Every structure is written in C-alpha cells, then in structure tokens.
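fwd from M.: "can u put these together and see what the complex looks like"

so here's what she sent:
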Amino acid sequence: MSVIGTHEPDSSASRRIALRAQSVTVDYPGVRALDRVTLDFRRNEIHAIIGENGAGKSTLMQVLCGSLAPTHGTVVRNGVTMRFARPSDAMRAGIAMVHQELNLVETLNVAENISLGREPTRFGGVVIDRQRQLARARELLAAFGAEIDPAAQTGDLSIAQAQFVEIAKCIASEAEVLILDEPTAVLGARESARLLTLLRQLRDAGRAILFITHHLDEVVAVADRISVLRDGLLVTSFERDASGVLRGHNALPVDEIALARAMVGRELGSIYPIKGSSSTPDPAIELVNFGARGRSREINVSVAPGEIVGIAGLVGSGRTESAEAIVGLREREGVVRIAGRAVRFSGVRAAMREGVVYVSEDRKGRGLHTTLSTSVNMTLPTLDAATRFAGLWLDESHERGVTARWIHALVIRCARPEHAINSLSGGNQQKVALARWLETKPRVLIIDEPTRGVDVGAKAEIYAIIARLAREGLACLVISSELPELIGIAHRVVVLRNGTVAGELSREQLLETDCEEQIMRLASGVFETAGCSR
Amino acid sequence: MLSMNDRFASTLRTTQELLQQWGVVVAFVVLFGISTWNQGFDFLNAENFRALLNSHAPVGILAIGMTLVIICGGIDLSVGSIVVLAAAIGVTTMNALIERSTSESNAVLVGAIVTLLCGVAAGSLNGVLVVFGRIAPFIATLGGLAAFRSMSLAVADAGEIRSQSATLFGSLGRGGIPLPFLENAVGKQLTLSYSTVIFFSLAAIAQWMLSRARFGRHIIAVGANETAARYAGLPIAWIRFRVYALMGLFAGIAALIQSSRMNSVSTAQLGLGNELDAIAAVVIGGTSLRGGFGRVWGTVVGVLILGMITNILTISGVSPYWQGAVKGGVIVLAVLVQRGSRG
C-alpha cells in the first residue's frame, strides 16, 4: 500500500485544518518509532488513529500534545509552526489531551478538578467563586448527560465517571483540539456509547478530535477520517464521504475487517523456525475455568509437552494477569493442573519447584535487576545451588560456570558477566531473563512478550531458542502483542478478550492468509464476517 | 555503532565507579593529613587513636547494621532508642538477680543475654511492622524512636539505673587486650578495647556476608528492585524481616558495650541521636540511600571519618557546639559526591 501524500488543499479546506503533523519523525535508540508522518486534523472532524501495539500511535500523540519533541518534522497549529517544550505549551496553544492514566486530584471535588488552574474568582482574584465553579461544572457535565455531582469527591468516582470528568476538564479549558488516548478502554458498553455521542457533539461544535482506539467498531461508528499506522509509517487513510460511507483512497468502501487487514497487513518473513510437532496427548499444564481474581474465570487452555501455544489479546485482555496468577504472583480463581495434579502456588519459588516458570514482559522493571551484574541476574532464582554450608558460602566459581554455560548455549553477547546487565543490548538481556529460568529445568515455560524491545536479528534467535526448547519437550505458553510472531512460532493461538477465551486458531487455521484478521476480530470483539465488499 | 557506544559508556562507568569506590578513602587520608599537620603529636599517637576507636565503636556497630538495612531499601530510626531500652532492661534484670543473691557472674551473664534479646525483640517488632504491617520503614521506626525511649524512661523514672555489679559487668566495656610496647604518656600500658575488637569483627562478618553469603545477595537484590526480586522468587518478607531483627541484635550489642562501660544506664542520655550518626556514617561510606548498593568497609571508614572530625575539633579546642555544623557539612558533601558519580 502506498503512503498517501499531502493533498493540495484549497483555501477553505486549509482553513479547516486546526493541527498538522508535518513529516514527523521520532527516533528512539535503535528504533524509528515514527517515520515522516504527515497528518492533518480538521475542525468539525473526528480523526481516528489505529494500528497495532507499537505502531507509533502513542508516540504521535505525545508529539502533538508536547510531551515529546520529534527528532525531525514539526507540529503546525492554525498554519503556525509550533515548538512545544512541555505539555503546558501545547495546552496554551489549545491542544488538550485525555491520557489513559487519568490526571485528577483525588482529594479535590469534581468541580475543583474541572476548573483546576482556571478557578473563577471574586474580589479581583482573591477568593475562589465556588458558586460559579459548581454551576459551570454542573452545566458541562449536564451537556453530555453525565449524572455526576459536581460537589462529589473525585476519589469516590468510578473509573468511567472519572474519565468523563477528565474530558469535561479538557472541554472547560476551551481547547480546540482534543486528543483522546483509548478513552473507551475502561468504559462499559453504555458509557462508551455515551462518550461517542459526546464526541459527535463536540465535533459539531467545531472542535477537532483525535482519538486512538483498539475498538474498530467504534472507529467505524464515529470517525470521519481514519489513519492507519504500522511500524511508524502512515500506511493508509480512509475518509467518510458525503453519504456517510467510509472509503479508502481507491474509493472502495471499507469496514472493520478491511481496517484490521490494513493494521496488520504484513507478510510473514523467514525469521520463524520450522514448527516441530507435539505427539504427547497428556497436557503438561491445564487451566480449568481459570482466571486472575476479580476477572471472569473462563480460561480453559491446556498445553502438551513440546507444544507452543500462543496467547493473543489486546492490552487489558487479562493475558499478563492470567500468567502471573498461574505462578502465584496474583490471587487466582479456578484450577491449574500440572501433569494432571491440581496445584496452587504461593509464589514464584513454589511454581519453580513444580517446574513452572514465568518470564515477565517488563524486563527492566520485573524480569531483571538492571543495576546488578549479568551473573548475579543469571543465578538469582537458582542461588541455592550455588551456595554451600546452609547459604553461608557462595561458590563464585559455580556461579561463573553457570553464567558461562548459558552465555555459550544461547549465544549471549556479553563480554563481562560481572558488569551491570544494563550494558547489554535488549536482545541479550532478554536471553539472560530466559536463561535464568531455563537453569531451573522447567517443564512449563510461560514467556510474556518474548521480543519486546528486541531487534530483528535477536528476535529470530529467540524464536529459534523457543522452538528448540519445545522440541526438547518443554510446554511453552507464549504471550504476545505481535501477531506475526505468534502465528510464526505457535502451534495454535488462543485469543483472550476481557479475561475470557474469545476463540482459538488451530495449526491449520494459522496457515490461512487471513489468520491475523481473524485474531484481530476475536480480540476486538468484531464477529460479523459477512457484508464486506473488497 | 551501538557496541562502541556501549564500550565508551562502560569505560566511563568504570571510571566513575572507581572514583566512587575510593572517594571515601581519599577523604579519610585528606582528613588524616590535615589532622596530623595541624595538631601533630596531639592527634598522631596511640593513646588518641585508642580513645577515638573506643568511643566510636558502639555507633560503629549500629552503623554496620544500618548499612544492611539501607542496602535492603529500608531505614531504622529507632536504633538509639533500642540501645537505651535494651540496656535499661538488661541492667535492671541483672540488678534484680544480684539483689536475690544470685552469683555475680551468673547475674551478669543473664543481664547480657537479656540485653541482646531485647535488642532482637525490638528489631523484630520493627520488622513485623514494616514487612507484615506494610508501614513505611521511616514511619514504623520513627514510632520506635519515640516509643522505645519512652519505655526506658518509664522503667527508671527518667533517671539513671546504676549497675549493682561491682567490677565484673564494667570489665567488658572497659577491658581490652594488652598491646605490648605501647604505653601512654604516664607509662601505663595500652589495651585494644574489647568494644573495638567487636566492632571490627562484626564489620568483617557483615562485609563477608554481603559479598559472599546468600543472605547478602538477597539483601542486595531486594534493595535494588523489590518487584524484580519477587518475580525472581525470593522470599521478600523473610529477608526484610531478618534484616530488621539483625539490626536489633546489633543495637543490643551496642547497648551492652555502652551500659557496661558506664556501669550504669542514663535513660535520658544513652543512645540519644545515635541513629543519625549511624546513618551519617553509612552515607559517607558510599552506600546508596536508594538501596541495592553498599559496602560495610565504607561504613567503617565513614565511622572513622566522623570520629576524626569530633576528635580533631576537640583537640583544637573548637567549641563542641560547632561540631554538629562540621559533621552536617561532611554528610551533605558525601551525598553530593555520591549523586555526582552515580547519576
């Protein structure tokens, strides 16, 4: 697919443009998060940005709201090139952002939060005019039918209510451009619908609205323009025509399925190893009516020795929570069976003794001690084996031996194991995070985002390692947001949504060309497949 | 490209670590030089060193325990109060036994054990509050700072508890190993006090534990990143609890030395402000208050630096009122250097 060029706008159209990202590029060390993205955001328009995790959506939002300076390119507001040093600069320029993490002061009431920093005052700015403050908040909240008492304490609100207050706060700031990052992620169906109605009202009142979401049905329902990001590139755009039909640049109408295809549209490369087969019918691990506490307990999955089962699902679908619940890092509901025996682990150590290990998605915060050395990290879970005399003597030669063995076995590029591990590249750190658990000789490996922040070369190596481990009889559960990765290495893929198994793709289904779309549809809850013309 | 950068960064880091590592030693040598140059023989003689070590050994012992607590990501403000409470209960117990005509040696032995056990009990209470009560270490031990001292004041009506042991109890704090060939100005033979020996022995044990035992490795891992330690399967609660209990034991040892040296316990004075001196020594020694990194030998040098500052200011006749200001300056300077070199 081609990149849509900037239009040659006539003067009335260019006057409608409230905000423009002009050839914005953002480089992180080793990664180009955004690559020459040019996008216009118009008044009286809802513009949805969609893409897979890591496609660059959040980076783009950060640039637009001033919390991140682009490496190249500019942000143009009403025809004027802006240079935002901090979010307050963007706010002053009339750009407000509703973050996923809400920024409300819990100890203040709703009205105080809404007028925070712009309190109506009396007597020349000395005293806050509480009557006006409350009245203004009541008016705003009533405007979009939210039944929230402006005098209520913010800390007592539900997440959905807090979200409305946050939006009211942005509206109160009279910002012309509103940026919403996954606003419906925490909302139920009714509240989502109400929020979408509110967005339409705001659009009709002349605001430019930018909105990131994973829910394609919402996009189709409400967006006037849709831009698709993939690997930092703007791959295509869709626009709603006068009759209300969304059309691509080839003028063909689109639906959710076409959007899903545009998001993932990528060929599977050869970085994936050949899949082995698992012949043992007896599962190494079985989850029966399982779920993390507070989630629905409807996960039923089993993994046989030698089998790689992929777990797909959007952020918030309960993938990581479930994995952590298995190894005892969280409370859980339901039954876990290891080799046919029901178990309940009190913690990571207990799980490890039964041969179940979990490699965290959060390598820097949880998976490794970044300030400690490579060899300390390597032996931390198995330190008992390196100690003599009831732990009083740490055998350093044993420790060095274990480290050297894994450095050799997994081809970890690490010149000095005694140096802090954060001097290693992401891929090599990931190999250490994996190796320390392989040293425990596990039967079941649960690996969460095995290649997050890892370059392509190391990715292929990690896939090869996982495939080899499976061939040697390890049962592997691979959780990932990268669908090509799951399709490339897993024997079958289980899709989670809202803590429930939404569906499963067999080995044969994974060979079909549209399997990514199928996973996307299951993950985002779009089931209807009929009625699309391609 | 990346590996070049990595190599450059790691070289830079190595240099910084070297500076960081030896900064405290450099400070010690400089201070030692200034003292010698300024005061000559008044500073540079065996009798003075003996006195310096002897007077700072109890705080030094607290500082060793404090090093472990801080590396584990905590803090213990209650140590000075644990000292006075353990000493008060220990001496009271001993006196009661002597009054019931138990033999003096048995009474002293029981009193010493009770002192140590009181320390462990108070430290364990801190541990329970911090680990199982999920109270921030600063707050939990701030409570201990107030409560333990108040309890000891209550035991003795805020007065002094005199030991009923004529000589035996005091001999532990005052006695020592004779040093041949070393005599003081009036020809009396010098001794290496037991308290100094205990201080250095405990330092050696703690340093060895930190770098060579599983418990030490666990302390470092918990302090560096508690969440990551939990994900690695370490028994976090048990590790942290033991660190506070151990701190209590060290406070008990310091209490025994101080009460025996005075052969009495002044409940209003004993251990007062010791927690701050201990924390200061740890910080000067280069242990990170953020946890996850530290060394006991640095703390020992930190104790010696604090001792020398007091010592040299005293011999030079500077008003003792100014000593706090100088100490404060050194502590802040140490933190600045630490931050500068560790990013």
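replying to her w this: Chain B touches chain A at residues 2, 6, 9-10, 13, 212-215, 217-218, 220-221, 224-225, 227-235, 292-293 (CB under 8 Å).
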